[in-house]
Amino acid sequence: MNRFCKRRSGSGVLLRIGTSVVIMGCAIFALLQGVSSVSENAQNSQAESLKNAILRSAVHCYATEGAYPESLAYLQEHYGISWNTNQYVVDYDIVGSNLMPTVMVIPLKK
User: Fold this and answer.
1) Measured between alpha carbons, how far is 107 from 68 in angstroms, rounded to an integer?
2) Rounded CA separation 77/88 (Å)
3) Is the terminal CB of the chain with fewer CB neighbours within 10 Å at N or C?
């Protein structure tokens, strides 16, 4: 037996493997949380962009025709507004032909 070579016990190896597994699990969890957060922020940003596009089209309609559009269907038909109905619900409320409509875009969770 070589007296300069230490014998390693089996529990030390298991402890290192267990520590590696725990660290790797924590890293994977942090990565998944980051991806989820980025995805949610992107969806909210897209919803805000859709809302702004609808409002800009409504203002453009008011400037050219003298009245705000009475429905989203009018904006879709005459001003090319479109969106994925599986991702967003759009609420378009108009009070009068000379008052700016209220637009709410709600992202759908999947």
Assistant:
1) 25
2) 19
3) N
